[in-house]
Amino acid sequence: xxxxxxxxxxxxxxxxxxxxxxxxxSHSLTDSKLYVHVNDGKYIFQFYNDEILxxxxxxxxxxxxxxxxxxxxxxxxxxxxxxxxENSLQFGTEDLTLEIIFKPFQINYYQKGIRLxxxxxxxxxSVHEPMEMVQGNIIADTTxxxxxxxxxxxxxxxxxxxxxxxxxxxxRLPLYNRAHYGYETHSELMNYTMPVVxxxxxxxxxxxxxxxxxxxxxxxxxxxxxxxTISGRMVYQIVVxxxxxxxxxxxxxxxxxxxxxxRWALGNFASRFGYKSQKETVETIQKFRDExxxxxxxxxxxxxxxxxxxxxxxxxxxxxDSFPNPHKMINDLKRxxxxxxxxxxxxxxxxxxxWKEAVDKKVLALDSAGKPYTYDFFFGNTGLVDLYSKHGFxxxxxxxxxxxxxxxxxxxxxxxxxxxxxxxxIHATGTAQEVHNIYGHDWARLVQKAxxxxxxxxxxxxxxxxxxxGSQRYGIVPWTGDVNRTWGGLNRQVSIxxxxxxxxxGYMHSDLGGFAGANLDDELYVRWLQYGVFQPIFxxxxxxxxxxxxxxxxxxxxxxxxxxxxxxxxxxPYNYTxxxxxxxxxxxxxxxxxFEEADNPELFTYxxxxxxxxxxxxxxxxxxxxxxxxxxxxxxxxxxxxxxxxIYQGGSxxxxxxxxxxxxxxxxxxxxxxxxxxxxxxxxxxGNSLIFHYYFDPNEEDAEVELYNDDGITRNAFQNGAxxxxxxxxxxxxxxxxxxxxxxxxxxxxxxxTKKIAFYIHxxxxxxxxxxxxxxxxxxxxxxxxKSLKLEFNWNTAKDKEIQIYF
Length: 807
Known about the structure:
With 807 residues, this protein is α+β, with helices and mostly antiparallel strands.
């Protein structure tokens, strides 16, 4: 570390002193950490990299706890600078700087000389009337708070999943995971909260603490951001970056990256609440096959372990009357290229077959007398598995290992907020209030561990309703909860997923078609599925009164749904590469348009369209009977209608006509989109037959695409060299010549092969005269109406190839 002692000039921007009576005493710099002692404790400041800084406050008489539920990154060795004068010090990197003013005491944060945010009141205790959270739980009459100064123009995102507008400013939001059944356009508390704040000024704050609390996004309109909690660590990290990709990359490096899912997770799911028998399950899948409707997985809701909704929860074994031969069913489904996913819950009812076992093996959370805590909720009288005791963790993990050994390949963790979690219930490591928000997080960790123990080479698929910050590293696939089956329910789905992507959770998705209620509306259903083509997981799911599966809908709805699902499968090469990028760099699959125009304030709250990866612009249809809607086209590129080929100028707003067959979908001019032929299962895809669509832009000299491929199921395939990366570059640097270069980077444990390629070039303004592949000349297959050229060739990826198109 480089330390420079210099007097310095205060950076631009006025400072406002922290309002509490906190007095600076001294400071020291030891082992890359800055210690600042004040009258009531000490601060510890530590950089993780040039763009991530942690601030911890330890009150006098307390010990610092270095245990974080979220942070896994180890601090890097970086160059920092330290400056001080009579009344201040500055500690930082080229990208991020901490400033401390001694009197009056003040903490400020700067990015490259521009002030981002400052503490208004550092961590302090607040005594007030007991705070009521939810479910009648009194959480505390004393809380810890920290307040920050905001600028008047900041737009704020964060706090996890909420059915709210993109801008969270003005809301005081509980940090207490709680499901909201049947929500529509407004819900301030849902199943997946997070202690994360993201600002339009391009910084992120992560409050590194698990216990319940609140995030107040300036609800008093005094330009304040407040984090409040009942107990725990007084630690937060500030994360910055030059652009939004940098911020999400840094934050997911700090808290862990999402592992690759199995490739079948990008296919269509058959799911409802629920299939009641082995016979019904198998027949439903066969109907998908008979109807030529692609499907890759079937999800069994709670009837797999009991005939009734109430009473059997906790059995966690196949109900023999309804599912007489589960091994055969799972194997038969596997032969039909369909995976089996089972629902599980952490509640063991006193009426379940496992109650005595759970009590005898000390699996359950306790009451104050040391006995299993029992209480009533919708499903019956229950206890709760204590994930924080060794007995509970190992017992529950063993159940998952047994199911995996049976051939189940996907696990669904439901009700994991936990749905009912009495405040006086006691876990092995603390109270319900202290672990409530991380219960789903640690449940996902348990399930992932079960996979690694039972099937170490198999990629987990872990569907979870609730978790917390950092849970992406356990491979969770969360959904937006029990949304109402209405247009209002659909309305907020885009903003929820966009918000979660900003906070590191790339696979947030909705029950396609909506879950709650018996609303039979084919237009709504189809529009939701058309949106689902461009959300991370394609999973229709609903209560059974109205079918969630497209095979049981009207003929028109079925045909329109099939078109959407076919496109989902054709985009598998593109989507699988998005999955790879997310696993390597933390990039969300769904991205707000301000990722494209970071300095356009009009886009800070825009949620009518979004980016799917880098190269698709999607504008879902969110209202009944709509015939047109306005779309904004980001200005860095022109955009091309995916279906008609019409070109739209970047930076324009256009009222586009709507079609019942699809939602408005546009591709970036100059992009190369990898696709595949139609298929009935992702198992049919091996990456050896590919279609590329290049949307030529005369203003762009270069275009490139990277395509990732592996076997689709093996854990750590990339890390172990069992992969290939195909790179295609198109260059228009020479006059009257277009060059296409093909290169493959193949891991040491992946066999090269010959690929069948169809390469389309769209929007050419000149007719090609000649096409050469190496020394061979190809026929010119020109479509004069579409102004496109089609090339077909085989490519042995052991060798680089080059194609020249002459005009």
